[in-house]
From TrEMBL:
Protein name per Swiss-Prot or TrEMBL: Lactaldehyde reductase
Domain named Fe-containing alcohol dehydrogenase-like C-terminal: residues: 190-380
Pfam families, A to Z: ADH_Fe_C, Fe-ADH
Domain of life according to the entry: Bacteria
Residues annotated as domain Alcohol dehydrogenase iron-type/glycerol dehydrogenase GldA: 11-177
Organism, scientific name: Enterococcus avium
UniProt keyword annotations, A-Z: Oxidoreductase
Any GO MF annotation of the entry: metal ion binding
Record-linked InterPro entries: ADH_Fe/GldA (IPR001670), ADH_Fe_C (IPR056798), ADH_Fe_CS (IPR018211), Alcohol_dehydrogenase_Fe (IPR039697), Lactal_redase (IPR013460)
Amino acid sequence: MANRMILNETSYHGKGAIESVPLEFQKRGFKKAVVITDKDLIEFKVATKVTDLLDKAAIDYEIYDGIVPNPTVENVQTGVDFVKKAQADVIIAIGGGSPIDTAKAIGIIVENPEFSDVVSLEGEVGTKNPSLPILAIPTTSGTAAEVTINYVITDKSKNRKFVCVDPHDIPVVAFIDSEMMMGMPKGLCAATGMDAMTHAIEGFITKGAWEMSDMLHLKAIEIIGRSLRSSVAGEEKGREEMALGQYIAGMGFSNVGLGLVHGMAHPLSAWYNIPHGVACAALLPTVMKYNKDFTGEKYRDIAKVLNVEGAETLTIEEVRDAACAAIDQMSKDVGIPATISELGVKAEDITKIAADALKDVCTPGNPRDTSLEDIIEIYSGLM
């Protein structure tokens, strides 16, 4: 079977990348934009770095800033109505995974109104029409939503997050400007950075991985491994490198899938509103250990790019443990909680949460086939 790669038509990287937003808007012949973001990014003058450029170029736009973390079906539906009323022909999405994911769902439904209930978009449903065009500007260095064909929405009526996979939703242009990420608080930087590392590792060991995706994921692991601590400390170079590392991870995992960490993280966010990156980071070291005997030599490759001592010469069992330990230490170094009970997870909910995790779209990509009993055991061991 052929391997497919879907990426942005165009992407801009580095300081000042957002200065090309008006140029892309104009040369593509757009008439009016809806800027999709959240209230904090407006209040703290992050999104306004982009809207100031739109103003200077006399570009017509309206702002929809009703996005919340772990965006809901209702957020999407309100946004669809807003975009239709504005008669916009392009979306400019500014933010982390939540605004960009919401923008994808909105853009898809505007052009495919038969999915207006939102929940019917779960999985890979085969929409007929491409999304309303999206220009995506990330403000966190983790989700890589600007380069993926995936988005995640929360169904509050059922306490669950659902993953949508659609080649039609990928932003046409991405602007990865580290200056848009410099305002991230330390905790957000750590959580989104560990989410990026989770993307890179899960994408590297997933069942769908192949040589080109391995190339991307290994480079991403290397960059994130050397720069995350620096980024969390607020250092400019670290944030610049993380901006690139998380994007490269997105180029890979978007095309090959993820695994059990994401499958187990999504229910935690749906049930307890735990930030996605925090949920992934809390689970990653333990799930890596769970998977280690089903990964061939890949943990040795991970250990090498993380500069683990003896990575070349350790036995396969030793190097697998060393790779897990390196990720565990990184998680601790950036302040991620070691248990899920610290995040508010209740023991009495675990069986139901585990059932949701088993059904998650990401779970089948895990290199080790799992079961409800195994998932319950992993959650319970992290309490």
